[in-house]
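Dear support,

I submitted the protein below through the web form. The confirmation email said the job was done, but the results page showed an empty box. After a refresh the structure appeared. I'm attaching both so you can tell me whether what I see now is the final result or a partial one.
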Amino acid sequence: MSDPAAILAALRGVHDPETGLDLASMGLIRSVTVEEGQARVVMTTTTRGCPLAGVLKAAAEAAVLGVPGVAGAEVTLSWDPPWSPAMMVAAPL
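What the results page shows now:
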């Protein structure tokens, strides 16, 4: 069984192509839950109309599925509240 910390660590391997920063450091990951091998991630993008939203979502799903103990991954996008630079973290969570 996997835990949310392992999922978050995997998401650190997914980088925004515009900034080069990982999704977690950018503050794009809203929540991570794991129940019976099913991982659910809620994330956002820097803007609601981000042209890379689909690419980032697919990359996040692939990263989560690569975590030992994860049998399924569901990544959903949410823009409430809107992302702001204040959500970025300077050090790993």
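Response: this is the final, complete result; the empty box was a page-load delay. The first helix runs from residue 4 to 11.
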